Amino acid sequence: MKHFIKNLILMTILLAAQNVFAQSLYDLKTNWRDIENKKTDVSVATGSYVLIAMVYTGCAHACPMTISKIKKIEEEFSKAKFTELKIVLASFDVKNDRPEKLKKYQTERKLNPDQWKFLAAETDDDARKLAVTLGISYKDIGDGDFSHSNAITLLDPSGNVLASINSLNADTAPLLTALQESLKKATKK
Amino acid sequence: MNLLFGGLLILLFSTNLVWATELVNVPKGKIEAIWLSPVSKKAKSKSNQVVISVDSFNAQAFPVTVAQFKEFLVAHPEWSKNNVNLLFKDEYYLRDLDTAPEKAPVTFVTWFAAKAYCDAFGLRLPTINEWEYAAAASESKKNANREEKFLRRILNWYGEPQGARLKDVGSIYKNVYGIWDMHGLIWEWVDDFNSSFVTGESREDSSFNKDMFCGAGALSSTDKENYAAFMRFAFRSGLKGKSSVWNLGFRCVK
């Protein structure tokens, strides 16, 4: 009985704590399509550590840079012996970046679809919600062009935000540190 | 007695609901978007002013009140202070909900919560363009953005040391469309607030990283005279979706 009460109290505290610290991006309810035009969600890579960013494939400058920056981070992670990383790239160009276009882009750039998940938003609202959550500003400036800020965010396997960088020149060390801390915690459990 | 009380509650609830969804029409029109910049290279080469068309829409006559938001929380407890995911709120979320007067505009609300509220009533948040278009109207004119008296009043409000307590909704002024308190009471959330960000000229700013941005669109105020619109622009660009601010509320549109 004593044990039961003790456990109950412990569980309550744990649950409360979980709620207080809950910050899973996967609680965000938005609607997306994968490159095969199947309905999906930003939680498409649940269970893996994920780098998530927003792009648009019509972008001539910063978006290829986003991808090369992610590749660089991936390389740094591999050097630290972590190779299970998945990458989710969601487009805010809802009109032009439809699944078939994203698929073509992915194929052309030889990005392995098991690891790289491109997402096309169902509506502008879905793209906007994700951008706001990730702290990304963007504006359609006409002619298929967007002004936008850049953010690359690291998520744990449950979608909790571990760290993010908001500049393509930013030091990527905080991402690796956050990954290693999270991995350490996970092995302790 | 219980029955009477229950009946009273239902009555209160239903009258408030009617009030909550009272919408007034804003007819379509064109307006000089002095709160924006040349939005594309093309527009920039033609002229410095961008005229935008706004379609007709219906807007809530009053900002959403504390009482209305409390009712919403009864039906949607997932948006109460303790249930919201930390990505969608900051530590100030709904801070004064219990102490604020019922008819005051609800503030300390996040963009996510404001969106969810509007959603629950089949409404949505206005876009920047819609909000600015409706806010350009004075008591007698649809576009008073060039009227000194109108602008001065707004600037006076921005410059006022703000008291601890917000006035009730419906206490500032009613514009020509029948919409209350577009200025002078609170700042209001817009759906695309995160499309306001400063690039271009500000790139020289040391606090600002050029490499954070992509694209040629330099967003800045086209009209240095309209300092008031630029203030709103700057305010929006400083917000995050989970920001809760003491004088930032919202109203919905359809």
Concise overview:
The complex is a heterodimer of chains A (189) and B (254). Chain A has 189 residues and is an alpha+beta fold. Helices cover 40% and strands 22% of the residues of chain A.
Say what the CATH topology of chain A is: Glutaredoxin
Query: What portion of the residues of chain A fall into strands of 2 or more residues?
Result: 15-25%
Cα radius of gyration of chain B in angstroms: 19 Å
Instruction: Please report the total strand number of chain B as a whole number.
Output: 7
CATH architecture of chain B: Alpha-Beta Complex
Structural class of chain B: alpha+beta
What is the overall silhouette of chain B?
globular
How many helices of chain A? The count is 5
Radius of gyration of chain A, in angstroms, nearest whole number: 18 Å
The average pLDDT of chain A is: 88
Kindly estimate the percentage of residues of chain B that lie in beta strands according to DSSP.
Answer: 5-15%
Strand order within the widest beta sheet of chain A: 2-1-5-4-3-8-9
Our measurement of the CA-to-CA distance between the termini of chain B, rounded to an integer number of angstroms, reads: 40 Å
Q: Write the element-wise H/E pattern of chain A from the N-terminal end onward.
A: HEEEHEHEHEEEEH
CATH topology of chain B: paralog of FGE (formylglycine-generating enzyme)
The side-by-side strand order for the widest beta sheet of chain B comes to 1-4
What's the CATH class label of chain A? Alpha Beta
The CATH architecture of chain A comes to: 3-Layer(aba) Sandwich
Helical residues, percent of chain B: 25-40%
Number of domains of chain B: 1
